[in-house]
Amino acid sequence: MRSSRHRVHFIINDHYIRFVESDKRHSFLSYRQKCLPPGVIEEGRIKDIEVFGMILDEIVEEGKLKGSKITMCVPDPFMIVRTVSVPLEIMEDELKGYLYMQLGETIHLPFDDPIIEPVFLGGKGGQNEVLLIATKESVIREYTDVFEASSLKPVVADLSILSLYRFYYHIGQADKKEHLLMVQLGMDTLQLSVFHDHYPSIVRHSKLSLVQDELELKRGRSGQEFYILNVEQNRLDGQARDINTEIERFMNFYRFNLTKGSNQITKLILFGDHPYMDEYAGTISDSFELQVQALTQPLFQIKKGINIPHVFNDCIGLALK
User: Fold this and answer.
1) What is 110-162 written as a DSSP string?
2) Does 167 lie in the same domain as 59?
3) Does residue 37 sit within a domain?
4) Which 8-state DSSP code applies to residue 103?
5) Which of 190, 175, 135, 183 is nearest to 157 (CA)?
6) Residue 283 falls inside a structural domain
7) Do residues 229 and 309 both lie within one domain?
8) pTM tops 0.90
9) Which stretches of the chain are DSSP H helices?
């Protein structure tokens, strides 16, 4: 019989469904991933609900997860994080209502059905600063409906950047004084975010070029599915240059636009599931004069003593919430 603390923690992107199963705090029971066929999810939106539901049903049956409470991360393309200023007279318990009132006036978001969560940061320059976190309600509803149809019980939605920073904090690496650039490198995505004082200040999501024919599905000895990339070296070299260019632009924007030259990135950490993570970490380290740390080694185990691969770091971060 499962304990009251039993949870299953899902991360879903355009190519994978992943989860780790946890019991009491920091105790992991299992992990699993399945590859999604092309076109089932595109840029975070479920395009083929029937196939997605069938795959999820299969995961629930194989893992004996029926009735489990679950946590999940909001799809990255529908995540907004920014710092906004509000008048001093607005109390903390009034922040959410005030921010909703400002939609379309002083606050503009790229979708018309946002869910907003404010985080009070403190006073600055005669106003209060608030971290605005927003996502698209209809997208969250799509996922929760499919989870519920597969006999799962969604209880928490989080952001991948917060889950990964929680992971980083838990392993004792986080320093509130640093200006940390978190690089999330996916099969065809690049997400960049900055943390300072343990809070994110900006996040940028972009696409990397990928031809579906370059993906080949494989199965490991444990039965886990994964994709490999069949590409020429010059294609990888070109993508590495593109990634470095985006990182440099983002670092310059943070230094000169967002902080007006008062701060700059002091450390870079690399997460993700790109098959060439280690190679790209090397090119990034060679290109920038700052500390680069690639978290590509397993740091957690399930109870059987089996290492949990690094591609599950965001799932683990969800479990640490």
Assistant:
1) SSSSEEEEEEEEEEETTEEEEEEEEEEHHHHHHHHHHHHHTT-EEEEEE-HHH
2) yes
3) yes
4) B
5) 135
6) yes
7) yes
8) yes
9) 49-63, 95-101, 137-149, 160-170, 233-252, 277-287, 313-319
Q: What CATH number is given to the structural domain containing 234?
A: 3.30.420.40
d(C-alpha 268, C-alpha 42), whole Å: 28
CB 96 within 8 A of CB 61: no
Distances (CA, A) of 277 to 150, 171, 174, 190, 273: 33, 20, 21, 12, 7
Which amino acid belongs to residue 46? I
| Residue 152 and residue 8 in contact, taking contact as beta carbons nearer than 8 Å | yes
Token look-up 């008048």 returns 87
Structure tokens that stand for 201 in this block: 């200040």
How far is Cα 205 from Cα 191, in angstroms, rounded to an integer?
4
Domain contains 1 = no
- The three-class DSSP label of residue 217 is strand
pLDDT at 250 over 80: yes
Counts for the chain of helices (H) and strands (E), in that order: 7, 17
Q: What is the DSSP letter of 301?
A: B
How far is it, in rounded angstroms, from Cα 315 to Cα 71?
A: 9
Q: Which two tokens stand for residue 292?
A: 């680069």
The count of structural domains within the chain is 2
The type of residue at 24 is: K
283-304, pLDDT tens digit by residue? 999 999 999 999 999 999 998 8
8 Å CB contact between 288 and 243: no
Whether residue 150 is found in the same domain as residue 27:
yes
Residue 123's domain comprises 78-135
Side chain identity at residue 62, one-letter code: E
pLDDT confidence of residue 1 = 52
